[in-house]
Specification:
The chain is an alpha/beta fold. It has 2 domains: 30-127, Rossmann fold (3-Layer(aba) Sandwich), CATH 3.40.50; 141-273, Rossmann fold (3-Layer(aba) Sandwich), CATH 3.40.50.720. Helix content is 39%, strand content 16%. It contains 10 helices and 11 strands. The protein has a 6-stranded parallel β-sheet with strand order 1-11-8-7-5-6. A 3-stranded parallel β-sheet has the order 3-2-4, sandwiched between helices. A hairpin with a 7-residue loop joins strand 9 and strand 10. Helix 2 crosses helix 10 (273-292) and helix 6 packs across helix 7. The longest helix has 20 residues, at 8-27. It is globular. It starts with a strand and ends with a helix. The model has no long low-confidence stretch (mean pLDDT 97). The protein binds NADPH dihydro-nicotinamide-adenine-dinucleotide phosphate. NADPH dihydro-nicotinamide-adenine-dinucleotide phosphate is lined by residues 142, 165-168, 170-172, 193-196, 200, 213-216, 234-237, 273-274, 277. Residues 142, 165-168, 170-172, 193-196, 200, 213-216, 234-237, 273-274, 277 line the site of NADPH dihydro-nicotinamide-adenine-dinucleotide phosphate.
């Protein structure tokens, strides 16, 4: 079997187009969704993400603001900035790019964001809303993107056994909630595995849909995948590769080529889940503006 490739670039573009059309309709009423991104320090990967988020916002016709701080910023300065953005009517959504330097209490920062503007969906209010299935919740962009891929590719989740490897607050746990809900892209039977799971390969082999988010290059091998399963690879890992002009290449958490021989559908890395994440962040910013009614 050679798996169908689930193209996140194409699906992400489709969603960005839908968001841009909705933003244009809002513009007709004199309204414009705005997203602020706060970044601390000069981690090159974080800077690349933040730049792409800003660019994507502008392309969708949204207002975009980036607030940059050196790694030496104090927690009080950061909290004061969040208070300003909470009060700013031009900003409907905001996020603080993670990770933050060690001297900053990340939980305190995330909890300071007004839940109505928390487009990353990391505030406890939104985490709770997601768990109870409240449609006003902001769904974390990566698992929300995975769910949209499944829906738009016609992959039936209802009654399927979905196995998620990884239980982070950003990916694994919200993914479980979304797949479990009694809603489109939900109604799966969900198993979540982590580093302490016993005999993970045999659990993975029972999956109709296998979502992998652990940050370990090519961890999932073909013998861990049931023939015909759908495999979603969230991982983004840099591995050294002297033959590549940059000296490294990106690989997922799944050994792509051998697993593609067994699976019925698979996401590539790059070009799979990654582009969906930014698309869903824009979708969440639009949702924030719609819910704010201004
Ligand atoms: P975290 O490090 O926060 O969580 C990793 C999870 O994987 C933990 O639950 C950990 O278990 C589990 N894990 C680690 N090693 C193993 C193992 N050997 N067997 C089973 N479980 C294991 O990672 P994130 O969720 O933030 O990210 C995961 C990956 O997804 C990374 O590669 C990241 O770069 C990528 N990512 C991609 C995004 C995108 O846009 N495509 C967005 C976000 C992340 P335990 O809890 O027991 O320690």
């Amino acid at each position: 079997m050679t798996a169908r490739i689930l193209d996140g670039v194409r699906i992400g573009k489709e969603i960005r187009g839908e968001v841009a059309a909705a933003v244009a309709r809002m513009a007709g009423k004199g309204r414009k969704p705005g997203l602020a991104v706060v970044i601390v320090g000069d981690d090159p990967a974080s800077r690349v993400y933040v730049r792409s988020k800003g660019r994507a916002c502008l392309e969708a016709g949204m207002h975009s603001e980036t607030v940059e701080y050196p790694a030496t910023v104090t927690q009080d300065e950061l909290l004061a900035q969040i208070d300003r953005l909470n009060a700013d009517p031009a900003i409907h959504g905001m996020l603080v790019q993670l990770p933050l330097p060690k001297h900053i209490d990340t939980d305190a920062v995330l909890r300071r964001i007004d839940p109505a503007k928390d487009v990353d969906g990391f505030h406890p209010v939104n985490v709770g809303k997601l768990v109870i299935g409240d449609p006003t919740a902001f769904r974390p962009a990566t698992p929300y993107g995975v769910q949209q891929m499944l829906i738009r590719e016609g992959i039936e989740t209802k009654g399927a056994h979905a196995v998620i490897i990884g239980r982070s607050t950003i990916v694994g746990k919200p993914m479980a909630g979304l797949l479990l809900h009694d809603a489109p892209g939900g109604n799966a039977t969900v198993t979540v595995c982590h580093s302490r799971s016993r005999d993970l390969p045999s659990i993975a082999r029972t999956a109709d849909i296998l979502v992998v988010a652990i940050g370990k290059p090519e961890f999932v091998t073909a013998d861990m995948v049931r023939p015909g399963a759908v495999v979603i690879d969230v991982g983004i890992n840099r591995v050294n590769d002297a033959s590549h002009p940059k000296g490294y290449r990106l690989v997922g958490d799944v050994a792509y080529a051998p697993v593609a021989e067994v699976a019925s559908a698979i996401t590539p890395v790059p070009g799979g889940v990654g582009p969906m994440t930014i698309a869903m962040l824009l979708r969440n910013t639009l949702q924030a503006a719609e819910q704010a009614g201004r």
